[in-house]
Amino acid sequence: MITAFAAIFVFGLIVFFHELGHFSIAKIVGIKVHEFALGMGPSIIKYKKGETEYSLRILPIGGYVRMEGEDEASDDIRSFNKKTVFERIAVIFAGPLMNFILALILFAIIFYNISGIPTT
Fold this sequence. Notes:
Number of domains: 1
Oligomer: single chain
Largest sheet: 2 strands, antiparallel
Distance between the termini: 43 Å
Helix content: 40-55%
Strand order of the largest sheet: 1-2
């Protein structure tokens, strides 16, 4: 049972960092973010800060960042579809980049704990 909870926690951590990448770059380039969600299905916990709703959902599989103009046509200047190609690519690429950075950090921690600091 503890192994299942540990797997869910680790998967949630990976998803959190991935979605945080999309979210942070979207905010930096000025895209309106409607929701930052971890999990799928109905919300367990949610709160709104500014224009963004943050939610934790019942099924611990995946997550998403819902941005203005991502799936639908929008005339809002702050919509995803109104940004330059470079800005859209940056938002899309930021999620996998955060996964890569997280992997580097975890490998460094594991390597340090296994090998320790050389004494000579």
